[in-house]
Design a protein that fits this description.
The chain contains nine helices and eight strands. The chain is an alpha/beta fold.
Length: 225
């Protein structure tokens, strides 16, 4: 059965890292709206410049733009056997649109990575990204972060939206606009919440266990029909 996973969590919760790892382990594409938007910014397209101004203020890009990006991406052949969505949906309107886009597909498994706000601020303040390819590098546990990207050897810098003032604004935006997604999804049998304050390996293990539990339950239910 195709595996369609949505990763939810505040900025800095580790969604991108875990989505990369899970998608690689399961052999399905990771679809990150953040990566798509950063590519548009680097290309200096009209959409990219509009998106950059919004993201630099710690705000969210409009639903219409994000829904269009995701619909186009999910229609590609490599997503037919499943996908991991990182950074979408971020609003209830986007979630409703995704339900429509997903009609006829396998159920959406929704996993929230929960992390205390104080730790999120610390993590984001310590995070470095590659100025060339946008890859994340450096964690609060690494006192001496590298200066070059391991992927492309580009210079590592702090993201313009990772200053403390903008981080706190992003977390406020998340609370106002994105946390209602938990209310939207919580009653679904495919919703799980896991502890994002663990080590990366610990979070990965909890994520895999949550998805495996749903798949095993779905298989058992199918065998009873």
């Amino acid at each position: 059965m195709p595996l369609n996973l949505i990763m939810l969590g505040a900025p800095g919760a580790g969604k991108g890292t875990q989505a990369d790892r899970f998608a690689r382990d399961r052999g399905i594409p990771k679809i990150s709206t953040g990566d798509i938007l950063r590519e548009a910014v680097q290309a200096r397209s009209e959409l990219g410049m509009r998106a950059k101004a919004i993201m630099d203020r710690g705000e969210l890009v409009g639903d219409d733009v994000m829904i269009g990006i995701v619909k186009e991406r999910l229609d590609r052949p490599d997503a037919a056997d499943g996908f991991v969505l990182d950074g979408f949906p971020r609003t209830v309107a986007q979630a409703i649109a995704l339900d429509g886009i997903s009609q006829g597909r396998a159920p959406l498994i929704v996993v929230e990575i929960a992390v205390p706000e104080s730790e999120l601020v610390q993590r984001l303040g310590a995070r470095l990204v590659c100025a060339s390819c946008g890859a994340n590098a450096g964690t609060p546990e690494r006192a001496a972060a590298p200066t070059r990207c391991e992927r492309c050897r580009g210079p590592l810098v702090q993201r313009s939206d990772d200053s403390e003032a903008v981080v706190r604004e992003r977390l406020d935006v998340y609370k106002r606009k994105t946390r209602p997604l938990l209310d939207y999804y919580r009653a679904r049998p495919t919703f799980r919440s896991i502890n994002g304050a663990l080590t990366p390996d610990g979070v990965a293990a909890e994520l895999a266990a949550a998805v495996d539990a749903f798949e095993e339950g779905a298989a058992a239910g199918g065998s009873r029909r």
